[in-house]
Structure prediction request, 499 residues.
Amino acid sequence: MAAKCSIRPTTMSASDAVDNIILLADSYKVTHHLQYPPDTTYIYSYFESRGGKFEKTLFFGLQYILKHWLSGPVVTLEKIAEAKSVFQEHLGQNVFNEEGWKYIVEKHGGHLPLQIKAVPEGTLVPYKNVLFTVENTDPKCFWLTNYVETLLVQTWYPMTVATNSFYQKKLLSEYLSETADNSDCLMYQLHDFGYRGVSSVESAGIGGAAHLVNFHGTDTVAALMMVRKFYGCRMAGVSIPAAEHSTITTWGKHKEKEAFQNMLDRIPSGAISIVSDSYDVYNACEEIWGKALKDCVVERGKRDGRVVIRPDSGKPEDVIIKILEILDKQFGAKENSKGFRVLPSYVRIIQGDGISYESLPKILERMKEKGWSTENIVFGSGGALLQRLDRDTQKCAFKCSSAVIGGEMVDVFKEPITDPGKKSKRGRLCLLRQSGTYVTKEECPRGDSNGDAASMEDVLVTVFENGKLVKDYGFDEVRERADQECRAECRTQNHKKKL
Prediction:
């Protein structure tokens, strides 16, 4: 069977091209309704992080998928006809479940007869625990549970970005606690520079929103709009006017001072960030900022303004220390109550090159060793924040664990001898809070839990039922929950250090 390209392409966005729930699945899903045992009426599946880079996962992003793709009458006769045509050509035979999809239109008005339960967004859960479950609510639609796997598993992306961002927040919080008088600047210490480094505008919006769960600084405008539309927060992030190399280098090498001066003049108040490594960052800090424009910088500080100097090349831990020493010489630093040096509030550094979870500790530890407080610097991260990760970063998986076949409920699981790490859970699942952590209990009965679970509330909350979102999280709520998780993690870390 050869692929054919005989129609004229049209101008549309990628999301417009696949605005059909039936097409939001891997090709092999199309025939799965034929493959289940006879008399199957119920399929129950779950999503988890089976392990990975971080020992805990910050859950976020399912609500976007539910609102954008699954809520409302998403199945129509027109979409069924389109899907039938696509799959007939794509698979070369008539295996499409036209009857099943038409049943959803006729019986449910195009709403998906599914129930989805999930941990509250912003919750930090140790890996190897259930994060959400999916089950059909109509026995004739047992095949639908795993049909939506492809789409729902994409929760891995915002969840993993949020987790990556969370652990960097935890790290920054620890260093601020050790070297600064307070942590007032924490929410602005890791700025999202990732818009241009991701695979699409949608990725920028989703990943950028995930970062904003933990921090308030971003240059990814798509993230602001994503949070506004799907989490009800009018303005989730802030930024400041900033220079790029082109706005400096177009003045020419010998007019770098004039380029800096122009920005000070054109934006006379507030904080501004100026990239200063176009030619010689050390000369820029010592001769231009520290001498020629020093009075302007100091005067700006009297109006509650700030100049944030941005190096953008070299080995970060070496470059930052040298710049701090130059700025100390030119502007003078004072010692805080913990014995670490702090520059005047009107001058700071932002390091946006080479920043990741792996590089941050090296920079922060070097600053600490040299007697510099973490509050002297903020960081920007791009590709390492939003793009340098995948589904296996946290080993995310979606598996069936229970079914009703011939009227009997049976446990379902996999246990490959070639990889014990891929063993799946069995039965209906509860997520319980025990001894300060989360534990997944297997084989919970359908309906209310009993036995050991009876006295403890299942953390999983119904968020979607029969085509309707039934739990709508506001972004402030998600942020507050995640912030509490970070504080708890830091307290635990401090306690371990004291032991």
